[in-house]
Amino acid sequence: MDKITGNASQNGNGFNLSANSQVMFGKLQKANQISFTLNAAANGTSGLILAQDDDGKNGVKISFEPSSNRIAAYVMNGGSEDLANTYPLSGILGTTYNVTAFVSNDVCVVYVNNQLSFSNRVYDVINKKWSIFSSSAVTFSNINIKNP
């Protein structure tokens, strides 16, 4: 863990995040596998940010948005966010998500509950950081990163 913004507490290999919080981790490699379980809030947004600069204003945000029944990707540039891609969370009951994200070079595929996959282009990943975030109180558990 490199930096906490907002309020987050570590619990083993997981974090409890309060509203509008973020935990930034170390630099990504050429190939990465990030996995975690997200217990999301029904009315908030939460997920991970890839290819993030040290200041946290640039990157690609993968956001779980249960109230909109979707997962979405946003390109973050200088603090603004532009919607790039969405996919419905149809068929996934509740707000607990088992997530595995594979990032290789500039391709990211996120698998959710072994039921759906969500792919995006993520440029300039190598030596950039990654984060977990939430707009409301959530729990990320079983966080694991591998660099195969």
UniProtKB/TrEMBL annotation:
InterPro entries: BT1760-like_C (IPR032507), ConA-like_dom_sf (IPR013320). It comes from the Bacteria. Pfam families: GH32_BT1760-like_C. Residues 5-143 form the BT1760-like C-terminal domain. This is BT1760-like C-terminal domain-containing protein. The lineage of its organism: Bacteria, Pseudomonadati, Bacteroidota, Flavobacteriia, Flavobacteriales.
